[in-house]
Amino acid sequence: MNYRVQPSAQVDDTAEIGAGSSVWDLAQVREGARLGEGCVVGRGAYVGTGVRMGDNCKLQNYALVYEPAELGDGVFIGPAVVLTNDHNPRSVDPEGKQKRGGDWEAVGVKIADGASIGARSVCIAPIEIGRWAMVAAGAVVTKDVPDFALVVGVPARQIGWVGHEGVRLVAREDRAGVWECPKSGRLYRETAEGTLTESE
């Protein structure tokens, strides 16, 4: 076995765990879930049935990633984050009968490469969070988040851009539509459609 699972964790026999990954105390990885290489699943975290995670993802303590979530490479999920999976959650149907697995249609959250989801935030499925985007701690995300966007609040709204370093970008005064990372100096260009791309 080329990965580490703590004795108190529960990893289903049908789950796939990539080389170099770690599953810590009291975490649960359900049937058919697939974790890439170098992933970390923190204490008490939950990875639902069939969830897909890329390489080098981090799920911090008590994060809840419900199926059918899909995480790209290098995704960070902060402590106590919740990725939901139901449009209209109910315990019972209109007649009062308890709902079962086949009584609802699961919808998922998709998170692209490099994105970060801050502590105790909630992502309401179905949504997509773009590459290298950042969701602030405590936010409630109810709509798609563009690549490199920084979103905060309840409901989450965009307040700026972040680059690969995770630092808020600064507008270049000498070049319209160009943003710069104050840490790396890397440049990004804002399109007429309001999206951000790496500058060539």
Automatic annotation (TrEMBL):
The keyword Thylakoid does not apply. Keywords: Transferase. Signal peptide: none annotated. One of its GO terms (molecular function) is transferase activity. PANTHER family: ACETYLTRANSFERASE (PTHR43300), ACYL-[ACYL-CARRIER-PROTEIN]--UDP-N-ACETYLGLUCOSAMINE O-ACYLTRANSFERASE (PTHR43300:SF4). This is N-acetyltransferase. It comes from Streptomyces phaeoluteigriseus. The lineage of its organism: Bacteria, Bacillati, Actinomycetota, Actinomycetes, Kitasatosporales.
